[in-house]
Amino acid sequence: MIRPFTQADKEEFLAMAHDFHSSDAVASATPEEYFVRTFHRIMDNSPYKDGFIIECDGEVAGYGLVHFTYSNEAGGVLSTWDEIYIKPQFRSRGLGSSYIAFCEERYKDKSAFYRLEVEDTHDRLYKLYSRLGYHKIHYRQIVKHRHDTVLNTYDKNLARPMQKQDEQDFYKMAAQYHATDIIESDTPSSHFKNTFSEIMKGNPLIDGFMILKDGKAAGYALVSILCANEVGGIMHNLDELYILPEYRGMGLGSGFIDYFENFYADVTNLYRLELVWEDKKGQEYFEKRGYEWLEYYQMLKAPIK
């Protein structure tokens, strides 16, 4: 049986999370207090995260965490099977695969895509997820912790949150950005409309910004917002950053990175970006700014509805 967390599961979850985060499935050590934060966030009905207990023969056999964010490219919510842990004595019984099937069914009407992460050294898990229909995407994640970030002076007038009058400018620029070879798949214009609508509604999973030059729209940025046990709370992912061709070479892209880091400084635990594997110039730029690679492949699967 698989069921949502209850208050009575706290100590069991903390013990299992400790075991999971002490294994080689996690890239870095995780403070115990992060597990407590995650549990309380789930019990407070956070829009970012759900938690489940996996049972077998009437005993607690493991747990799973699901987190949510929003993707313009996907045209909706990405539901990520963030952590899947099975106690050693219950392994090799198909509980992990059953849990993934449970999540796929539970969230099929909410999700534009299902998402998994697997370390690049875990061939066994990679092969398992491939058999289950997940495919690797060509974006790598690069991150920087807030406590490792020295904030640069920034231009507060360089950007602002999107407003209703930005709708047509956003559609035009998003179409141009999604026509480039940075984007892995074709993106229908309906996705841009969905994204703008969600931003205007105040969806907690996504923010949108207009980048300005002399008061005119020169570009846009989308920030997807999610919550991870591994980082102890909220992370902000700079999902899309686009500058119109006529405004390039003016420092607007770099200026927006400073704006982005300052804008979320008081509320984020981690800054995150995604770069295509071939973008060596981007990799070098962000490494100089203190960003580091995550050693995870991202894998996606479309729901069958």
Automatic annotation (TrEMBL):
PROSITE patterns (UniProt xref): GNAT
SUPFAM superfamilies cross-referenced by the UniProt entry: Acyl-CoA N-acyltransferases (Nat) (SSF55729)
Cross-referenced Pfam families: Acetyltransf_1
InterPro entries in alphabetical order: Acyl_CoA_acyltransferase, GNAT_dom, MshD_Acetyltransferase
Organism the protein comes from: Youxingia wuxianensis
PANTHER family in UniProt: L-AMINO ACID N-ACETYLTRANSFERASE, N-ALPHA-ACETYLTRANSFERASE RIMI
Name listed for the protein in its UniProt record: GNAT family N-acetyltransferase
Residue ranges of every copy of the N-acetyltransferase domain listed in the record: 1-167
